[in-house]
Amino acid sequence: MRTRTPALTRRQMLRAGGLSLAALGGLTACGATNATAPVPGLAPGADPWRRFAGTTINFISENTAPTAAIAANLQPFKDLTGINVNIVTLALPALVQRVALDLAGGQSQYDVVYADPYQVLAPYAAGLSDLREFAADDSYPPLEGGFEDFIPTQLQAAGMFGDSDAIHALPYDCPTMIWQYRKDIFEKHHDSMRTDLGFDPTPSAERTWEEYFRIAKWINDNVDEVPYGTGHQAKQHDSLMCDFSNVLWSYGGDYFADGAAVGLRGSEDPGECLLTSPESVAAAEFYRRLVSIAHPGSLGWDWDGVGNALAAGEIAMAPNWHEFAATNEEALPGLVGYAPLPRGPVGTANHYGGTGIGISAMSSGARRGAAWLFVNWATSTATQLSNLRSSAGGGTPTRQSVYAMPEVQAATTRPTEMPNMLTEEAVSIAWAEGKIGLRPKIPMWNECDTALFTELSRMLAGQKTAREAMEDATSRIDGIVARGWVA
Amino acid sequence: MSADQTADQNTAARSRDAGDAGIGPTPVAPSARQHDRGRTGGITFTGWMMSPGVALLGLLSLIPLVMLIMMSFSRVRLLGGLQLEFVGLDNWIRAFSDVELWKSWVLTIGFFVSTLGVELVLGIAIAVVLNRLTRGRGLLLPLILLPMFVAPSIVGLLGRYMLDPTFGLYANLLQGLGFEQDVLGNPVSAFVAVTLMDVWEWTPLIALITLAGLSGVNPSVLEAASIDGADEWKKFWNIVLPSIKPILLVAILIRSMDAVRYFDIISVTTNGGPADATKIIPVRLYEAAFRFFDLGYAAVIGIMMLALTIMIARLFVGLLSEKETH
Fold first, then answer.
1. In this prediction, does ipTM exceed 0.90?
2. What is the top-level taxon of the source organism (chain A) (predicted)?
């Protein structure tokens, strides 16, 4: 027996389609909920550190040294506040995805966010709370030393965006690129190098990039302890832009007009790209030449690759982030020295890659208050000092008061329990005004960065000349900037 | 046949087509109407049985598809909730005029052809050898199939370590042979390396499917061919290969779908570099969607990929149907 039922008519089909679209609209609208519950008040006489006891918050961070140290030593925070912190650590690209999707969802799964200035802060500043609101609220424990205790350039670079005075993040780490070299090799061959090259090869801010090139070549030809003089993070990756930028700035080139301000405070409209300037092209040409004599692995290395190569005795020197000092000291105790990067025709530039931690604007209720207590604690003097000693990672302090501590000052020379402090002399020069290198803090930087390192990679592969690479990068960056940014 | 008869038949054929397409009532020849009533008159018992599955499929596939199409005509805002800002054909025009995107398409086709070609030749060769083995086949087969059970991202990591210029085994061997460059740092060798990693992982699948097909070849036909004086190559080319063609098409179809969305290995080895030499379309799609959050543009790339996948699937399904008809 056959059952007869009415067919789906066109009208029914249209109705079903309409319902689907309505459902889609509903789904789309669901994400727009951003109502936030108020933070519970402080009861009279209550301990401000324990007002959110029992609350659980989530902290999402890049898998960096300070977070490793904090994750290994969270108990003091729990004892102090009674707050549970779940820490999620990821590679930076994965972190950026999670944060963007979390902000889109409007539910604030992550209360505390590792706010990379270029990939999180600049594009999603509106999704981060203004921390001045918490610092000015007497019901919270005071921010020790105030915002002024943070190194001023770092507070602006890692915590602020555009013309606004809002502080979206507190400086949390401060990796900076410096010259890392095998002290033993430089000492052993010092005299022969000096005789052959005609200058003192000891790494310092007085050396030029041209001299760096000649030292690397000399080591290639004359030293048996390591196969190559220099190594670079020249993989088609963010690291290639970081490595190249040191040379670019020292040659007088820049990404945009008023590059220092665009780097320090950021902008949504940085203007035209300047990579076709003669200085930028000269920098690119030099960089191509430098990588051509570097360890062949350079074309496949990011910063970890360079760090491993130095530790494995494959290269005698490299520009790399100063937080690798802890790894270097473990692999080659006492054998690695640090100096500011060489200078170009206009001076030295040392790429700063620091990041802050902020609070999601969607975080609400007790979690919002608990998030501030955690941010306050995680960036405090005591925690930064403790991180420096941590065997789990080792921090890179962002407070001036930490660097002024006698035990920290004492740790700048060997033997030391705080290996990252061995770089103190080099980074203190690197952070000086005019010597710190800041990439453009623009919302669309991720895409501009990709355009640049792809063109640089083509140049290093011999597919383009330095001029062609810079022209094509400029054209792509101008197109990306012209399209603007919607968050 | 008279002109009137021909016209009637054409009308009937048109109305059948229209009925299939769900278009409104058209005068049809009585026989055609009776024939189609079961299909177009209402949802049959089978239809009702299938409806939960179809509804679930609709929920899981159609809504995202509609959303994808809507996004391709929009600029997508994320902050504070998903919002679509209609921009007309902007994303489509940008995609069709994006030279970098077309370079990636060329690369994708190159990758598709080379992986599939090498896997097919090697897979058939391995299957033929295994089919002839009388001893040790039980031991050899699992060993050959082993790569298939490794997660693609682990294959990528293994490849990366094997090719590391500092401590990689293959890199050292190549250095011994005079190839001093970093394999993953050179555009040509990086492309070859990621292709070979895919070949290493998925050739066993082709071999396995082919082996199943070979067991169905009629031995008496082969014996007859031998008696007629056919050599091994002739027997393979004229008897074995035509016999296993349908099953080979299935293997190619499965691998084609995979090759179009190849991502994991490239992501952990070269991430599209050097010089964009391994930036095939899935890598570019990922980049547009989840690194730049340019979701409207990514939707266009996604739809292009979907169209290519459907074309490939239809091509192979068509070839299979043709084979069955013959």
1. no
2. Bacteria
